[in-house]
Amino acid sequence: MGALSERRAARYGFSMAAALLSGVLLAACQSGPAIDLGNVDATQASSENISSLTQVINANPRDPEGYNVRGSAYGRGGRYQQALKDFDTAISLNPNFYQAYANRALIYRFMGDNGKALADYNRALQINPSYDAAYIGRGNVYRQAGRTQEAFGDFEKAIQLDTTDARAYHNRGLIYQGQGQHTYAIEDFSTAISLAPDASEPYNGRGLSYLAMNQEDNAFADFNMAIKLDSKNAEAWTNQALIYERRGEKAKAAKSYREAVRLKPAYQPAKDGLSRTQ
To answer: Does this entry carry the keyword Transferase (predicted)?
Structure first.
């Protein structure tokens, strides 16, 4: 291949990668995972764990805290109806139990009932206007509904309350990223990492912003760390593959795209990348 053809190929490769990055960033900003109870943990709802919590409730049937704790265990295990029943009981025993309202809101959110989720978050914040977890939860509902300004305000409020919950910074970082404010996004993702160093998502998010700023080595390091922390993160595998593809390492790119498709068969950026490289 002549020098002119090589330059044209290089320009084409960069343009293709930029276009793909734009699509990946859009997907991340629209549906990037938050760091909460979204990952079902069956051990939380194991028979042994639930049995011990039930014994506590039986010993103190008028204590709303027991129902709140067991409801949280049911929720982490994906047993949403049982969780709702426990939170309902906790709230009936203590109508000002703002943590139970916020926990029930999270279950409603997972079930796709955002109207009830918002109502419960609003009630929790009426009872305790300084409850950072409720601002973060409500902000997630707003962000996923495309109500970006309201979401940003809720994450900002949680941060102003000196929250130590990494989700506030991670989710505000996603909004900054969607607005193309990658320097601010990187700062927020870095703070989220300092608060939750074992979480995969902030590394993946920061990597995308590094890539948007053409800091490829930093991006690659972050995608690799995201995979190390969570080998089931299909988005991180896709983004690692994108770096390999940009570097012309098609075999490695195809391998990573293939793993992403295996983990998340409907994830379009991974499917498109695999069709380009295999």
So the answer is: yes
C-alpha torsion sign, points 138, 142, 143, 148:
negative
List, in order, residues 6 or more apart from 218 with CB less than 8 Å away.
Answer: 207, 210
Which residue has 């990597």 as its token pair? 207
- Beta-carbon contacts of 251 under 8 Å, excluding residues fewer than 6 positions away, are 277
Token reading at 45:
């709802």
**Positive or negative, the Cα torsion across 231, 234, 236, 237?**
positive
Rounded to whole angstroms, the Cα distance separating 174 from 163 reads: 17
Whether 188 and 169 have beta carbons less than 8 Å apart is answered as: yes
Structure tokens at 26: 């859009």
Structure tokens at 197: 């160093």
Question: pLDDT of 57-90, one tens digit each?
Answer: 999 999 999 999 999 999 988 899 999 999 999 9
Higher pLDDT, 57 or 41: 57
Amino acid at the residue 239: N
pLDDT score at 17: 43
Work out the widest C-alpha separation in the chain, in whole angstroms: 82
Q: Which residue has the tokens 């960033």?
A: 25
